[in-house]
Write the structure tokens for this entry.
Amino acid sequence: MTTMIFGAGASIPFFKPTLTTEYLTQQILNPEKWREVIDRYNDSLEKRGIQITTNEVISFLYKIKSKFPKYNFEQICEIVDKISSFSFGPWPGITLFSDILLLNEIQPKQKFEWEKVPFLFRTIIAESILNLGKVDNYEKLLKQQKNFIEKQDTGDKISLISLNYDDVILDSIEGLDVDHGFHRRNDRTKRFYLDVTRFAKAKKTISFPHGHLRFISDNTNDTCYINNSTNANKIRWNKLNSNFIDGTLPIFQDKFAYNFNTFIVTGQTKDGCYNHLPYAFYYQKMAADILKSNIITVIGYSFDDADINRMLKSFLSLDTNNKILIVNYIEEKITKDLINSMALSNGKGLLKWLYEVSIGIIQFYEEFPAINRNQVGPLNDQVFLFKGGYERFLNQYSNYVLKDVLV
């Protein structure tokens, strides 16, 4: 079995401006974005319910930025989520997070409707992605990515795991008979719902454990799929304040704190979403597929998610014949000293993970001439690295990199 994991770096070549963590962080800190989305939300209430006060939201975001200037959008989102959870639901016994704060005699200070703020946060992320332009060679890159995915299909099962919210991977796999798990329950609805049995038996699958722009969670705690990301965004908005079954659900009830990871999973503590479909099954399938694979290709992944890092480490220890090809962009010359220096770093990322793997399972070679000369080569008998970035990978190595490198 072959598994491919697509991280944020896999989307970078396809958009202008570039879809990066920095770009999304700028968007969610843009006061004009918040004024527009809050005005739109308040107008939709038609004087029903508590309106959100724009200045208080913007002031709170600037407070986070001033205290933690290096925080990215996921770190900021984690704070917004937890404060929101407490601010609109601080009653004893509702969540452990509220109980802890109340035991310390901390009372919520915010007065506006915090319940919907995390949903608006995720909406700004979604609409910032939808408004991105495509690079001039978008169609060429799609075809190259499609060809690369096709070449990994050796007749055995193949599992694609996308950690991205955008449409790039879905555009690439059109015509490849890859099952995304969602199917119509009847012909009267445009919504598709997860069919776990069918998805588990499919030979070629794609999973979205961090959600997608095409997802909508409804008032039944069920997450459905819409074929078009723009239409899904409109439906989420139009159904946000609906009490009917097909109304948009912006929040999950969990034990520690309220969970706002309904259609987009972000923040620093993503584990809570794995108690809800489709994320529960995605996580289970991802773990099973990784352990059943012989080769895993990891493209543009930041190595910042502890759960996925653990799975990849277990995959290497399970069988010395298992191999990982990492496609990433690393400007520095790869040396053993560079990897070992990560021991002194408090950061995360690929090099940090490589160091942790090297002391836990395997030792790296002393030198890496192939990688530094040709951009691609082995770090040891199991881990291979392409350091030139995904676009260069698609242009130069999509036809033969696995066959010629993973030997």
About this structure: The mean pLDDT is 87. Residues 73-88 form the longest helix (16 residues).
